[in-house]
Amino acid sequence: MKLAVYGLTSTLLVVTAVFVAFYQRPNFYSAAIYLSQNNIAFLILCNLAVMITIFIERLALTIFFGDLRSHETERLYEQLWFTGMETGLALTIFRDAFDLRFLSVLLLLMFVKVFHWLITERIKYLDLIPDAQKLLFHVRCISTLTMLFVVDAVLIDYCLQDMFNKRANQMLIFAFEFALLEVQCFRNIYHYALDCYEVYVYRRILRAQLQRENDLEGVETIDEEVWEPKMLYVFVFDLFADALSILIYMAFFAIVISFYGLPLHIVRDVYRTTRSFITRIRDFIKYRKAVQQMNSCYADPTPEELDRDNVCIICREEMTLNPDQRTRRKPKKLPCSHILHLGCLKSWLERQQRCPTCRQPVQPERFSSSTRTQTSVARTITQTFQPTAATSAPAPLNRPTTGAADHHTTGTTDTAWAPSAPSPTHTRPVPTHSTSNEEEDTINWPFASPAPDDYIVFKIKDAADGPVIVSGSTQIPLSTLQRQAPFSVINIAMPVPPGSTFVAPNVPPSQ
Amino acid sequence: MQKSSTASRRLLKEYKQLLTDTPDGISAGPIDENNMFEWECIIQGPDGTPYEGGVFPAILKFPSDYPLNPPTMKFTTPLFHPNVYQDGTVCISILHPPGDDPHMYETAAERWSPIQSVEKILLSVMSMLSEPNPESGANIDACKMFRDDLPGFKAVVRTNIRQSLGL
């Protein structure tokens, strides 16, 4: 409606201007001169050009995208707003070169940009509801993507040619913008390809499963498979695309800053892209670490633990201990003893490396300084609930750690008694005796052999060789404690900041 | 069948849960049952607050990786509140994506986690209505008025409610 009013007004203005020109001037030539020289008439004509562009854009959008969803329109206006502001800033740099050609290329840029935004939204939508998409959707996506890829390339070439041949420096900004759009187009293409391939993979799995178990509840189990490598592909491609855009930004930044001055309009984008680049790499490393440790580090829950709470907090579905179920449906227990589906846990770890329930970090970052410690942690944890033939202390392994009755002091200055037993949801007894093939360092424990059901609190300090526990004047490396303590050590898998206390339940060594 | 099934199945579960056991003062459900990723919900203004008697419809939009990322919530009628943007977008910490706040303003513990649900979001929004937090303001005018001119703030809220109810 607003658009119709705008269109009508613009047309009327043009008609009036043209009419006035021809009425006042004797012949066509002078009328045309008047129209192009008079400021107001010129402005009206420019407005007409903008209007025509908008209408062509609308037409093209209807052809390539069909009806826009409300969400898409919303995003479109949001993007337009930002871009409008940034363009305003960009114009200040190239203010000398502002002319009709500049304006027309600017319009063209906007025209192409709208397409890029919308196709990005469309592809996100495919990710949301992959199965609901019909053939027309794919035809539109593919044709739009191909068209944009070619158009971008042609425009980059045109701008560069123009810049070098006619020394039109203002074309630099457009070459840069179109190069960025080409990167975005590339991003969209691989996202689209990966999404489509993923849908294909699911269809295939579905068919295979239906054939295998076409009699009973096949539908319930089908959608558990996830095409896991997708995450890796997306990551690699995203990283590449990010690196590419950073390069383009940097090049532009360098050129502009040496010839014109600070390009204010892209500072925001440069910052954003660089930050996303860095966080992407960091998150990915963390994720890989967590996943690597997942199988060795995190224990399978016992049936009793599962009975207490068997709903996975992420998918809100039941967890069962069924040996022949798919790996992603297997329950896993985090160091904080919260239980989740392995698959759900993995997808969550892609985003954050903390327990979704209590937000404890899921990996013992604190101890990862030395690999020895790390593997030792991994081993001790997997040993939980498995009686091992150890040299020093085969402690009663799944003895409850709660209900500590009487506490007594051990006579050392730096150890203190825990006021109460740690809550069972956050603790887990970990037998820390070394396996038989490991060499023994002899150590004199500076404290008396404690009674059952007691707890010792250690202070942890950072030392040169990694964390140590302090007991009186003695410092014992944490790794030694893990291997040799004549009692179980709990909380070992949780990162403990230096200076904090460390609780260990005392399990008497078997004599 | 499709990989978004985790998200849509969890949403379906939450929807069924809400149908059988709806807390007082809220109602929510998908706008179109073929698309579980857009919900409409209605929140009643809590009693004993300026919002009492008001009925506030809002749109919840879920990402494809829900519940790993939070939905967004936007009121569709004008709602004058320190923590609601002028376009109706709700600004509460549990609707912020997981991870640490780049501005170090709120801790990761206050932000989204899959343990939250539509029901919890709506209940949080209800409690946000009864206890505005002008410290982390989304609508600066509302914040200022709430702090300096409480009667005036209440009057604006009441007028808005009357208008939205067509009184």
From TrEMBL, chain A:
Chain ranges of the RING-type domain: 312-359
Q: Which GO terms describe its molecular function?
A: ubiquitin protein ligase activity; zinc ion binding
Identify the EC number(s).
2.3.2.27
The keyword Transferase appears for this protein: yes
Question: What stretches pass through the bilayer?
Answer: 41-65, 100-119, 135-160, 239-262
The domain of life is: Eukaryota
Give the protein's recorded name: RING-type E3 ubiquitin transferase
Q: Do you know which Gene3D superfamilies this protein is assigned to?
A: Zinc/RING finger domain, C3HC4 (zinc finger)
Coiled coil (residue ranges): none
From the broadest rank down, the organism's phylogenetic lineage runs:
Eukaryota, Fungi, Dikarya, Ascomycota, Saccharomycotina
TrEMBL record, chain B:
Q: Which GO terms describe its molecular function?
A: ATP binding; ubiquitin conjugating enzyme activity
EC assignment: the record states: 2.3.2.23
Domain UBC core per the UniProt entry, residue ranges:
6-166
According to the lineage, what is the superkingdom? Eukaryota
Instruction: Tell whether Nucleotide-binding is among the UniProt keywords.
Output: yes
Q: What is the lineage of its organism?
A: Eukaryota, Fungi, Dikarya, Ascomycota, Saccharomycotina
**BP terms from Gene Ontology:** ERAD pathway; inner nuclear membrane-associated protein degradation pathway
Q: Which Pfam families does this chain map to?
A: UQ_con (PF00179)
User: Record's InterPro entries?
Assistant: Ub_conjugating_enzyme, UBC, UBQ-conjugating_AS, UBQ-conjugating_enzyme/RWD
Q: Does the entry feature the keyword ATP-binding, yes or no?
A: yes
Q: Where is the active site?
A: C91
- Which reaction is recorded as catalysed by this protein? S-ubiquitinyl-[E1 ubiquitin-activating enzyme]-L-cysteine + [E2 ubiquitin-conjugating enzyme]-L-cysteine = [E1 ubiquitin-activating enzyme]-L-cysteine + S-ubiquitinyl-[E2 ubiquitin-conjugating enzyme]-L-cysteine
Its protein name is E2 ubiquitin-conjugating enzyme
Key words, A-Z: ATP-binding, Nucleotide-binding, Thioester bond, Transferase, Ubl conjugation pathway
Q: What family, per the record?
A: Belongs to the ubiquitin-conjugating enzyme family.
